[in-house]
Amino acid sequence: MIISSLAISYANYNIGFYITMSLWLADRQGKRCCGSDEPVGQYAQAYCTKQKLIDPITEEEIDPDEKAMRAIEEQIGVTENAKKAFREEILIRISALARRGQKFDYTSHERLREAIEKKLFADLKNVVKMLTSTKAPDPEQQKRVSEVVDRLVEQHGYCRQCASELLRYVGTLLSR
User: Once rounded to an integer, what is the mean pLDDT over residues 104-126?
Assistant: First the structure.
């Protein structure tokens, strides 16, 4: 009976964990990907206007990162033929927000938000597998695991032991 109850609890936590992890990573990485310098908008604008970007480090002219854009767009089924229209949608949203004095970020465009969150969640699955598959994680892996555990404790009411067990459990599910 206890094992059955524990299995149900894990199943419920598993759903919550996936949601928590996906939102946490999407927010953290999405802001990094589309934050103050907002590369996705810059790539869309450069693509639509057939211009180059300036590399912030080397100050050289560079092409937009087509591979990165396609990796995001493919998450929501944007085909090669539809990429121009999708990027123009982003550019229109950036312009509309700018006219109202608002700043664009990845959550300003629903389809872009969905695409970035799906891409980041797919990447997250690989990270969770990697973090939970090693018996003796290195300091960087341990730091990442601690961040996830802290988030589950602080924002979702897990105790540290339950959060750690949950992370290990989800890691075994993802490694199947």
Answer: 83
